[in-house]
Amino acid sequence: MFETLSLVRKKSPVNPEVLRKFSFFASLSMDQLKEIAETAPQFSVKANHVVFRQGEHSETMYLILKGAVKVEREDLQKEIISVGGFTEYEVFGELAMLSKEPRQATVTATQDSEFLAIDRAMMLDIIKKSDPEEIIEFFSVLSDQMRAANDRDFKETLSKRTLAAQMEVEKQRALTQMVAGVAHEINTPLGIINTAVSIMARELAAPLEITTQRAADIAESLELIRRNVERAHALVQDFKKVSVSQLVAEKEKLNISDVLAETISLMTVSLKRNNVSINVIDKLKADEKSWIGYRGFFSQIMINFLSNAERYAYPNNVGGQVTVTLEVEDEDHFRLTISDSGKGISKENASRIFEPFFTTGRAIGGTGLGLSIVHNLIVNALKGEIKMKSEEGKGTEFIVKFPRVVAD
User: Fold this and answer.
1) CA-to-CA distance for 322 and 334, rounded, in angstroms?
2) Cα separation of 63 and 42, whole Å?
3) DSSP state, 26?
4) How much is the pLDDT for 223?
5) Contacts of residue 120, Cβ cutoff 8 Å, sequence gap at least 6
6) CA-to-CA separations, 316 to 52, 280, 305, 319, in angstroms, rounded
7) To the nearest whole percent, how much of the chain has pLDDT over 90?
8) pLDDT in tens, 163-173
9) Of 40, 83, 149, 405, which has the fewest beta carbons less than 10 angstroms from its beta carbon?
10) What is the DSSP letter of 261?
11) 221 near 200, Cβ under 8 Å?
12) What is the pLDDT of residue 3?
């Protein structure tokens, strides 16, 4: 939990030479640098403390002497957008200082940090004592920083909107895949029903005596019809639940084991075609299966996990097994583990697998959105966490921790 910053002032002045490392002050004279070093307050800040929040009024900018910060902005839809970050010898907060406008973002220390604070009055005094060339250099640096900030903001907003649009595309693609799978799977019970009906029609067509053998044949045909009607009905019901939940995000009280089984049953046909089998290990006791959450989000997560394994862990129909384990993590959380023994992920790619549009499978139709969507849904929709372990050539394991009651 982040805390609002309570700045702790340090008494020891900063070395004037250090100020030359900041582009803002690189052109100033040593006398000016000494004056800034002696008069500007120096503060220490603990990691995860908020330096200032979006909307606050302040006329101070900060020079990072040590540590790093992240910058986040809340958009009109109340969603948090990551604008970027700053590290040693960089400056932030200068726009609000000069314009007197409210802060446009929230800044949080990501490490234990030390800042030098310069307020509006001090900056105006610095400008007054500077020659024209120094002033021009100062505003040139300011212009560059504004341009860079605007570029970061634009790219982040564009990326977020593109991801949202692509998530809808992926959702529809998953539904299309399930429709094809269900249609293919229903053909089997319908074919058996058709055969059984033909047998019964043949046996009942001629007005012959109903022998014990004929009665047994008819009874067997009726049982085949019953079982396969139930199978077709179950497939349709599973598809109806999953497909409707993909279109409407509604929080429900669910049996988490049933939701998992329904989703996997709809993916089975596609996975079988690529020689991928699913081993489900459900460790939940009867009284542990209740989940208040979103069927559609969970199903979409599972569909992406399994599709990813099918495409990347076992490419080119080499086949293999995916093990899905569902268990209790603690009193308030479930643990879902998806593991395979396929190709694995290289070290250089492992750190980027959740990045939007990063993929090693562009040639085989990969969009780089599968695991990005998974990460987004787990963290933002289900309020959970995801970790990945992988070794190239030895498989991959994803560990998901999510609440048994998803918060609003």
Assistant:
1) 19
2) 9
3) T
4) 77
5) 59, 60, 97, 98, 100
6) 52, 24, 18, 8
7) 22
8) 666 666 666 66
9) 405
10) H
11) yes
12) 39
Residue in 39, 92, 87, 34 with CA at minimum distance from that of residue 65: 87
For residue 14, the 8-state DSSP code is: P
Q: Which tokens go with 404?
A: 């048994």
Does the pLDDT at position 290 exceed 90?
Answer: yes
Q: Are 98 and 45 in contact (CB under 8 A)?
A: no
Which residues, other chains included, contact 74 with Cβ-Cβ below 8 Å and sequence gap of 6+?
54, 80, 81, 106
Tokens of 377: 């849904």
Q: Tell me the residue length of the chain.
A: 408
- Written as six digits, the tokens of 139 are 């505003």
pLDDT tens by residue, 370-387:
687 788 889 888 999 999
Which residues on adjacent β-strands are paired with residue 337?
325, 399
Which of 228, 306, 227, 229 lies closest to 260, judged by CA?
A: 306
SS3 216: helix
Report the candidate in 226, 375, 227, 237 with the shortest Cα–Cα distance to residue 297.
Answer: 375
What is the model's pLDDT at position 5? Answer: 46
Burial (0-12, 13-18, 19+ Cβ within 10 Å), 173: middle
Helices (H) and strands (E) in the chain, counts: 10, 17
Checking if the pLDDT of 302 tops 60, the result is yes
Ordered domains of the chain (ranges, CATH): 3-130 (2.60.120.10), 174-403 (3.30.565.10)
Hunting for tokens 């606050």 — which residue is that? 56
Output the pLDDT for position 317. 81
